[in-house]
Amino acid sequence: xxxxxxxxxxxxxxxxxxxxxxxxxxxxxxxxxxxxxxxxxxxxxxxxxxxxxxxxxxxxxxxxxxxxxxxxxxxxxxxxxxxxxxxxxxxxxxxxxxxxxxxxxxxxxxxxxxxxxxxxxxxxxxxxxxxxxxxxxxxxxxxxxxxxxxxxxxxxxxxxxxxxxxxxxxxxxxxxxxxxxxxxxxxxxxxxxxxxxxxxxxxxxxxxxxxxxxxxxxxxxxxxxxxxxxxxxxxxxxxxxxxxxxxxxxxxxxxxxxxxxxxxxxxxxxx
Length: 271
Description:
- The chain has 271 residues and is α/β, with parallel strands linked by helices.
- The chain has helices spanning 17-28, 51-60, 75-89, 112-140, 170-189, 209-214, 229-238, 252-256, and strands spanning 8-12, 32-37, 64-69, 94-97, 143-148, 195-201, 249-251.
- Helices cover 39% and strands 14% of the residues.
- The protein has a seven-stranded parallel sheet with strand order 3-2-1-4-5-6-7, sandwiched between helices.
- Strand 2 (32-37), helix 2 (51-60) and strand 3 (64-69) form a beta-alpha-beta unit.
């Protein structure tokens, strides 16, 4: 019997990286996990990982998981996610809005299509999933929402500005700023209902398959946090009494109380 025994968690972007780590950790604590991503089967993406593979692994380890294929940039697909997850596993207690995408480059060079895709996946979809899942949580008197954010949502101190402030992440940071405001605002609106809403970001670099391909950040220019840190921090936020911890914007290693070196986008260098 783990700390999440009997709960159902919906986790987006669960085919690989942070989402997959969170899903495995929650399943190990007894949660039934709905794995939401576009990559259903192995070999159908240029990146490794699929929700079918992860569901099989969790099942082999004694857990319970359902693979929910959805394109989270498609409003029609998004409308079905909560209903399909709950049909497979039962009423949702936890929602982790993790799915993300970043197209690095100067803000003025980002194409309209890429800009729209980023906002669709990281702003519109989390907002809509909250609208779909929260009423049931309120009816049951408990729920936990974790929105995966980034220090790039914060503002670099300057001028003069450090080089890392020009790392090509303005639209990405805009999306995560919106997600932060959703987290704090929804927490305020839901105060007293038993539903907690928090935002959780990485303290350092996490070398997910996607980051390894496109990011300008490497272990040579940014401190790397342990792979399990985000999953453990997410667990710390949801393994709490209903409504007890809410409205926070926190970062993995800080939340876990584990010393970690400053690097690019250190909180001390932002506001």
